[in-house]
Write a structure and sequence with these properties.
Largest sheet: 5 strands, parallel
CATH superfamily: Response regulator
CATH topology: Rossmann fold
Strand content: 15-25%
Number of helices: 7
Number of domains: 1
CATH class: Alpha Beta
Distance between the termini: 34 Å
Helix content: 40-55%
Strand order of the largest sheet: 2-1-3-4-5
Number of strands: 5
């Protein structure tokens, strides 16, 4: 499901999205930060593609270019399982989506969202595993919207040098959106 209704493959032309953000969600709470992000990020040209299951995330990964991903480790395999009792394989589904993202070239920076850990040992073990699996950052639930926005800012700074994906070529050639409009 595309939360802003626009074509996620688009670039910067015509005010369309410049960056595709994959948001996965495990159905653990009403009105999570994952549902608030698309409304906040759309004015900045970020296309938030929301997946409620591993199956939906896999389809989006195959069909669209993903610049940044937010992966909930406890997402169900199929969307029909959202809101039901969690099967034991939910964490495995989140790890499978992480592996799919890691195989992309280039692999997008990924934020892992995980449930609260029962012990300090489990906390450290889970953090270490997520980082080994290619996570840029790990956030524990319940998510704080400000924390998520800060991590997204750090990703843009580190991975895209504060320049939107696709804009680096325009900067290198000296063509901006306003120059293209004047040329038309």
């Amino acid at each position: 499901m595309y939360t802003n209704g626009s074509n996620p493959e688009s670039g910067t032309k015509g005010g369309e999205p410049r960056l595709n953000l994959l948001l996965t969600y495990g159905g653990w709470r009403e009105r999570p930060a994952v549902e608030q992000l698309p409304h906040l990020l759309k004015p900045m040209g970020i296309n938030a593609m929301q997946a409620d299951s591993g199956e939906e995330a896999e389809t989006l990964i195959r069909e669209r270019h993903v610049h940044i991903a937010v992966v909930d480790l406890e997402m169900p395999h199929k969307a029909e399982h959202v809101g039901r009792a969690r099967p034991m394989s939910r964490t495995e589904e989140g790890l499978r989506v992480l592996q799919l993202l890691r195989r992309l070239d280039p692999a997008p920076p990924t934020i892992v969202v995980r449930p609260p850990q029962p012990s300090t040992r489990e906390y450290a073990r889970g953090l270490s595993q997520s980082l080994r699996d290619g996570a840029f950052a790990v956030l524990d639930r319940p998510l704080q919207l400000e924390s998520m926005l800060e991590v997204l800012r750090r990703i843009l700074k580190r991975h895209y040098q504060d320049v939107w994906p696709g804009m680096a070529q325009e900067i290198a050639t000296g063509h901006s959106r306003s120059q293209r409009r004047q040329e038309s």
